[in-house]
Every structure is written in structure tokens, then in C-alpha cells.
From TrEMBL:
Single GO MF descriptor: ATP binding
Stated name of the protein: Tryptophan--tRNA ligase
Record's keyword annotation contains ATP-binding: yes
Species of origin: Sphingobacterium deserti
GO cellular-component term (any): cytosol
Keyword Transcription in annotation: no
Function: Catalyzes the attachment of tryptophan to tRNA(Trp).
Chief location of this protein within or outside the cell: cytoplasm
Lineage: Bacteria, Pseudomonadati, Bacteroidota, Sphingobacteriia, Sphingobacteriales
Amino acid sequence: MKETVVSGIRSTGKLHLGNYYGALSNFVKMQDEYNCFFFIADLHSLTTHPTPGDLSRTVREVVVEYLAAGINPETSTIYVQSDVPEVAELYLYLNMNAYLGELERATAFKDKVRSNPDNVNAGLLTYPVLMASDILLHHGTKVPVGKDQEQHLEMTRTFANRFNRLYNVEYFQEAMAFSYSNKLVKIPGLDGNGKMGKSNGDASCVYLSDAPEVIRKKVMRAVSDSGPTEMNQPKPEAIQNLFDLMKVVSTADTLSHFEDLYNNCAIRYGDFKKQLAEDMILATEPVRSRINDITNDDEYLKKVVRLGAEKASESARKTIQEVREIIGIKRLF
Ligand code: TRP
């Protein structure tokens, strides 16, 4: 039997290079080898209260981008989280076994409290429980996620083990983070510091759907400095970030060419950025053209989403039935 893979991306807007190299490209590689469930985490995105219009638009964008990146809806299950309401029931059960102390200690929660002190809602606190429910609903054992999600996976294992112990069963398995390489790829933003992310603004992100002119403009405006003044001097963060991006989208020859120029104080950032932009455009071209092909294809998208909901529901219903039995929830008459 193939091992089960579960992963999701929150629907908070268009996907960027960070999502692509950090998550999507792994999803695509995994799909032939494993039984894969890839979903759009629209329920998770409710913690930040999107408008109804934004919510449905972003869900659609992520479905399109999953398909454009090369996920095959026949072999993998692509579904919208809210199309499978069983996850909310499992979330309720697991919440009875999740403790305030451990939830408050989660790094992602603490970060959110710090950055958004006026929106510390219970959904945010129990975000890891919903995430555990996503995974356990399908008995996922491999979860392709970035480094920032490892703690959430550890909590998933805690909740699963606690459930097993409480009911004296060996029902849920342990889910492990998965990545093809042991060093997680770093996709920095164009704004000089930190990782590529929507919260750092549109100018720092290269979206998969960005047109070539847009990519050129963003890269040319990326933060840099006045250039190296000493041979082989260490690179400041903003410059290292651009090299890190080049490492991902360009050939090894191109990268070492510009490394040499930098080390000899002969680099011209204009040329460097031009090359980086062209290589980004090339690297994203297949995805971008598929996005354009399917983005308005209602018939196709409807078929994909319905098929996915059907397959995911089948797996979810079975789990919920078994969980109810284990807990002792049954109709009296
Ligand atoms: N928390 C993940 C993120 O922010 C998204 C997510 C929700 C997820 N549920 C999941 C990832 C289940 C893997 C498995 O990136």
C-alpha cells in the first residue's frame, strides 16, 4: 500500500516563488509515489477574516495554481477543505484533548499575537488542532511542509498519540514532515530581508501569475547596495538574497559567473538583476502559461473540485465513522 501524503496551502492570495519551490514542486514530485491529498485550506484562512468575495476568489486561484504547477487531479486528490465538513467534526473531538498551555506555546501563535495583538481569536489558538485534523482525517504519514510548520507537525503527533492513549487504541499514526532534500530551500523576498511572503508586500514577491514585464520591474527594483569594495567580501543580506534566488532559478554556470564578478568587485547589479529576472521568467513560464489557459475554464475547474471533494469525502467519512465508534458516539435508537 502506498503511504498517504497530506498537505495544504492557505488561500490567502496568489502563490509566489516561495510557495512554488517550498511546497508545490515537492507536491508534484510526490504524486506518483504516494497516495496524495492536496487541499486548499480555506477554513484556516478565516482567522484573518477575509471578505466573502476575497475568500472565494483566492480559493479559486489556489486550485488553478495547483493544477498549473502540474498536480494531476486524477492521481492526486485536490480538494477544498470546506467541501469536506468532516474535518470540523474531527477538530471538535481533538480540541477536547488539546491543552491551553501547549497551544499558547506554539511559535506561530506567539508570532501572530505579537504582530496582530488585536486579533487573537480562538481559531488562531487552535489552528494546530485544525491542521492535525486535516492530516489525521486521511491518516497522512508524510507531510511536505516548510520548516516553519515542523512544530505544528509535532503537535499533530502529540494529539494523535494522546487520542490513542485515551481510548486505548492504535488508531492514528504519526505524521512526519517530508522534504526531498535535507536542507530546506530558502526563498527570500526582493525587499532585502526575510523570506518571500505576501505579508512583506507585493513588491517583495514574484507571483507565479506575474507577467514577464512585471517580474522584470520587480527584480530591477529589488533592494541592493552600492556594490562590493573589497575582494571576496561577505555579502550583505539583501545581496545574498538575490544570489539565493539565482541559485534556484539559474544554471550553476550563471551563478558562479556572477559570484566571481562579485568577488572581484566587478559586478554590475543592473546586469546581474537582468539575468536573474530573465531566468525567473523562464523558470515560471510553463506554470504561468497553464494558469492563463485554465483560469477561466469553469467546466474544467468544476470537474476537478467535484472529483476531489468526492474522493476526500469518502476517506473522511470512513475516518469519522471509526472515530465516533472509538469515542462511543452513537445513536441511542
Ligand atoms: N499551516 C500550513 C501553512 O500555513 C497550512 C496547512 C493547513 C497544512 N493544514 C495543513 C499543511 C495540513 C500541511 C498539512 O503553511
